[in-house]
């Protein structure tokens, strides 16, 4: 192989590095659990050291060869899936990070629409990235946002003991009725169910803390 070809391969590997020095790439059309199992089998067969993140990215834990990279692309293509480029993967990752950060780590959600918010923090004027997001995650950006908002609502109910009216305000719903309707549509359950669940969990914890054997280490003879 020529020096130029070697440099091209090295440059490609460097381009795939994220800021932490590891690579993270997404796969297009991997939209169900069976797809994940197929991907895992391919990665294992090729010999990658990796983990698949919660949101479906392949997080490569160490360097890999150009031959491994090419084999991965070929094997995925044979199953109808596509390995995204570093640029595309970075955009998807930024969209996910922006949405999760705003919903789960803001005291109150901004009034700015999420479409505008993503364009502001990720990229402006490229609607195609939202289609790629859907192809990667099997859902639209809007649906992903809804799911994250409902997850935050669960947390606020279970861990913050926050009333539903206050949760609706924090998550920027018009009123609690919109939140309740979306909550039920997304989970199939009502917020009232989760409030009851909180009480049941508290009772379990309370009963355990008063148990004669709680907090006792070792095994009795």
UniProtKB/TrEMBL annotation:
Record GO terms (molecular function): DNA-binding transcription factor activity; sequence-specific DNA binding
Pfam families the UniProt entry points to: HTH_18
Domain HTH araC/xylS-type residues, every copy: 93-197
Entries under PROSITE patterns matching the protein: HTH_ARAC_FAMILY_1 (PS00041), HTH_ARAC_FAMILY_2 (PS01124)
Keyword field contains ATP-binding: no
InterPro entries assigned: Homeodomain-like_sf, HTH_AraC, HTH_AraC-typ_CS
Alphabetical UniProt keywords: DNA-binding, Transcription, Transcription regulation
Stretches assigned to coiled coil: none
Name by which UniProt lists this protein: HTH araC/xylS-type domain-containing protein
